[in-house]
């Protein structure tokens, strides 16, 4: 189950023109630092840095899932040779070849399903032919065409599925299996079984670590393909596995390994959330990482980047200085920090100019000269006052003299 699942579900699917990331520094990605985490199993070693991957945001992915769920309501079995337009856009069609056990036998999201699969290109070229492929339905473990159509199949049913490139391997194509860019696929699918997913509380620590790692790796594949919403979904499922309560004893070493997977999921989730412009969510992911590992440079860098995007330059500079102190030779942090310091300086200059404009730009008090007419007026007032006083005193003296004579 696991070996065949890994071949199909976690295929490399990378663009051949992209370069492998270096290992000289924790942050030295040559891009914007959004790289995959290093892992011991070598799965991520051949994957390019996350920021190297192109593609537009695909926020409509959740809408497409919602459309698919809308057509999964129980309905009578379709007669043979009748095509079902799964999403109503002609890009994903399903036709029953062999009827199954009835609508009540359809699998549910979250169940582990097993299928036989034969995939060909529209020209008849066989892409792959595998038996007993297992995956969790609705978790995004496989291409959308399979995840959506298997939900509509009955137990034992064999169906033919026509999938547009959008719901297969898209504009990038795939290296494993070998699918060219923008290729439509024809798939012959047979649903063999469906069973409830494992009880996370009863899984051994090693099983939980393995399962969470697979979900995280699938999230990395989605990220590389530009399917950021699906990447967030896969990372979220992996986090649920790492955080689930357990009735099984766990050793300190296993607990540390589980925490390591959790931190990697949170870091990569923050990268995907940044791509979707979900800044508050990305900030929460970074804070969660730092709660476990206060000196995690990747989380510090992303936290600083989110704060900068929100215009909080002072806080962003403080965070990046802390990251630079942990790794002084890192060029990526140096470049980002220099850019933010310049922006912060420009912001302060603009604020000062605005304040001066609001206050009317009052002149310097040292440059103010008193008008001459005020001085003259003041001098004349004193002269008049002194003259009037002298006249009054003289009048009083004259009155005294006249009174004395009388």
From TrEMBL:
Record has Acetylation as a keyword: yes
Sequence ranges of Polar residues compositional bias: 7-16
Organism: Pygocentrus nattereri (Red-bellied piranha)
UniProt keyword terms in alphabetical order: Acetylation, Cytoplasm, Cytoskeleton, Isomerase, Membrane, Methylation, Microtubule, Mitochondrion, Nucleus, Phosphoprotein, Repeat, Rotamase, TPR repeat, Transmembrane, Transmembrane helix
GO molecular function annotations of the record: peptidyl-prolyl cis-trans isomerase activity; protein folding chaperone
GO biological process, one term: negative regulation of apoptotic process
PROSITE patterns: FKBP_PPIASE, TPR, TPR_REGION
The EC number(s) this enzyme carries: 5.2.1.8
The TPR repeat ranges on this chain: 297-330
A Gene Ontology term for the protein's cellular component: cytosol
Domain PPIase FKBP-type, chain residue ranges per copy: 110-195
Enzymatic class: isomerase
Name of the molecule in the record: peptidylprolyl isomerase
Pfam families: FKBP_C, TPR_2
Location(s), subcellular: Cytoplasm, Cytoskeleton; Cytoplasm, Cytosol; Mitochondrion; Nucleus
InterPro entries in the cross-refs: FKBP4/5/8-like, PPIase_dom_sf, PPIase_FKBP_dom, TPR-like_helical_dom_sf, TPR_2, TPR_rpt
Gene3D superfamilies registered for this protein in UniProt: 3.10.50.40, Tetratricopeptide repeat domain
Acidic residues composition bias: residue spans: 29-49
Record region (Disordered): 1-78
Transmembrane segments: 384-404
Catalysed reaction, written as an equation: [protein]-peptidylproline (omega=180) = [protein]-peptidylproline (omega=0)
PANTHER family: PEPTIDYL-PROLYL CIS-TRANS ISOMERASE FKBP8, PEPTIDYLPROLYL ISOMERASE
